[in-house]
Amino acid sequence: MSTDKKPFRILLSIDVTPDKDYLEFTERYRAAGLLDDYGLKQVAVPVYEFRDEFLEHICEHGLRSLFSMTAVMEAITSPSMLLSDVEAVVTKFVQKLLPATRLVVVDPFFYKNGTSVDTAAYLGRVLGSQAASLQQVYVVSNGQGNMRAKIHAAFDAAAPGVSVSDATTDDFHDRFWINPDSGTGIVMGTSLNGLGRKVALVDKLSGDDVREILIEVRKHIPGV
User: Fold this and answer.
1) Structural domain boundaries of the chain?
2) Of 46, 45, 77, which Cα lies nearest the Cα of 59?
3) Phi-psi region of 61 (alpha: psi -120 to 50; beta: other; left: phi over 0)
4) Which of 2, 21, 180, 219 is most exposed by smallest CB count within 10 Å?
5) Contact indicator for 187, 201 with CB cutoff of 8 Å
6) CA-based Rg of the chain, rounded to a whole angstrom?
7) Is 111 within 8 Å of 146 (Cβ atoms)?
8) Torsion of CA 17, 22, 25, 29, to 10 degrees
């Protein structure tokens, strides 16, 4: 049996009395010999130091989990972010829906190309190897845009032999990605072609929201 231990980080909150200071704490920490085995680092802004952990929690539990209110409109992608960072955020959310055999994409402008990114190539990277098990993709859009063939090819490249079914309607305004079999989904404030150009919300959907959206989707694609 392996005895290797994984590295870990602990965030400590230290209350300093008026007659003490942080420097004295570090000196006593050093004198106790703890620096021989454990590193000590002052974290001024935890949200930056633990950004990966925060992002993982948000992708797993949704932004709502950080607040007591029932709904939160919190922008987590914006034009000030690098496109690579925006892509990383979106990829983490999409990957939470995979692997799957079926995927529903509700996006009025899904087949419109972006001005800052190649939408089809972007889609391929977001799906990644986790999408290889896909057998059926349902796309609900407004039918506009000249990227349909390239988008379908991107899905096929990610999951060879996948079947892509289209439905055209103007009934939807928001963008949703849903795994209909697991009952999980995400909402995106803009299409893939608009990510990085405007402030946009990306969040996890509640189970009730997923069920309500699928009821509407089935009006256009029966059997989903």
Assistant:
1) 47-217
2) 77
3) alpha
4) 2
5) yes
6) 22
7) yes
8) 150
What is the distance between the alpha carbons of residues 181 and 152, in angstroms, rounded to a whole number?
Answer: 21
Let me know: does 221 contact 138? Beta carbons within 8 Å.
yes
Residues 90-105 have a mean pLDDT of: 94
SS3 125: helix
- Is CATH 1.10.3470 correct for 47-217? no
Classify each residue of 91-122 as buried b or exposed e, where b means 16 or more C-beta atoms within 10 Å of its C-beta.
bbbbbbbbebebbbbbbbbbbbbbeebebbeb
Q: 188-215 pLDDT, tens per residue? A: 988 888 876 666 778 889 999 999 999 9
Give the tokens for residue 140.
């609900």
| pLDDT tens track for 39-60 | 777 777 777 777 787 788 777 7
DSSP 95: H
